[in-house]
Amino acid sequence: MTSLLELAADKESAEVTDWAARIGWVVGLLLFIALVYWLMREGWKWRGTLQGDLPELPTVPSEQGPARLELSGRYHGSTTAGQWLDRIVAHGLGTRSRVELTLTDAGLDVVRPGATDFFIPVAQLREARLDKGIAGKVLTEDGLLIVTWEHGGKLLDSGFRSDHAAEQAEWVETLNNMVGTPDDTNDKNSTTEGTAR
Predict the structure, then answer these.
(1) What pLDDT score does 64 carry?
(2) For residue 85, which of 161, 142, 165, 157 has the smallest C-alpha distance?
(3) Which is nearest to 123 in space by CA: 140, 134, 108?
(4) What is the pLDDT of residues 67-87, one digit of tens each?
(5) Whole-angstrom Cα distance, residue 113 to residue 100?
């Protein structure tokens, strides 16, 4: 009985921890996290330097015309067209943010609170589609609106996610009709007309 009481007393009075070793581990961990963060930041800046040949982003013209479509949601980034992991960071294109999109006859106005706004003239728009991922962001099938456009002689994909995902299909259809992306029904009609002649 006494030995049990002595054991219990020994457990209560045991040294808790070696504080010097614990503080050393915490400081080491914090330094490691700071190093990783610094390396990521330097990699981001290096990527921006490599993309320095990309010209300044177009600004909104004074006359845009009435809005065809409007969308509120998130901007998830831009990549080299067809390469969903090759993120473009120059001119703030790599910064994720909230977004307000407005499509007019003049082009696509991209307003980003807290980040750089830009404008895509209709002549530089190439196509729109629904996809599931861009720049490290992966959603469900057809969860992202991807707009392909040309800037500085380079094709870019920019990814957007509407607060109301159902409206993204209308954006794809309207944008592709604006830029004259080939449509199956038009091809079938022209074939029928050619046969009839």
Answers:
(1) 80
(2) 157
(3) 108
(4) 999 999 999 989 888 887 788
(5) 9
Residues 6+ apart with CB under 8 A from 117: 60, 109, 110, 111
Q: Which amino acid is at 123?
A: A
Residue 113's contacts (CB-CB under 8 Å, 6 or more residues apart) are: 97, 98, 100
Residue 109 burial (C-beta neighbours within 10 Å; 0-12, 13-18, 19+) = buried
| Percentage with pLDDT > 70 across the chain | 77
Which residue reads 């909230």 in tokens? 98
Question: Rounded to whole angstroms, how far apart are CA atoms 184 and 174?
Answer: 15
Tokens 């980034």, located at residue? 77
Short-list 54, 123, 132, CA closest to 92: 54
Work out the angle at residue 74's Cα, subtended by the Cα atoms of residues 73 and 78, and round it to the nearest 5 degrees: 135
Q: Kindly report whether the global pTM for this prediction surpasses the value 0.85.
A: no
